[in-house]
Design brief:
92 residues; alpha+beta; 33% strand; globular; peptidyl-prolyl cis-trans isomerase activity; PpiC/parvulin_rotamase; isomerase
Length: 92
């Protein structure tokens, strides 16, 4: 079964996610922003989700983790929890 290593930032609004994505693109550290702004418990670990397998995350996030290019910041991705920025380090 495939697995991947990813991290994410979860916020309430799309506008907030867009703003954070711009800050990351301009050089701010993903993990620092995750610790400060993410509403997910993983935010305390810089957004680190660890290794995940298909079906462990909500469908919209699963799609990013297992189908989108590696090492890019994807999003905002909407789920029932809010808006996510997702970065995938590897998958196999």
């Amino acid at each position: 079964m495939p697995k991947a290593m990813a991290r994410h930032i979860l916020v309430k609004t799309e506008a907030e996610a867009v703003q954070l994505k711009k800050r990351i693109a301009s050089g701010e550290a993903f993990d620092v922003l995750a610790k400060k702004y993410s509403t997910c418990p993983s935010g305390k670990k810089g957004g680190d989700l660890g290794e995940v397998r298909p079906g462990q995350m909500v469908r919209s996030i699963d799609q990013v983790i297992f189908k989108k290019p590696l090492r890019e910041v994807h999003g905002p991705v909407k789920s029932q929890f809010g808006y996510h920025l997702v970065q995938v380090f590897y998958r196999d």
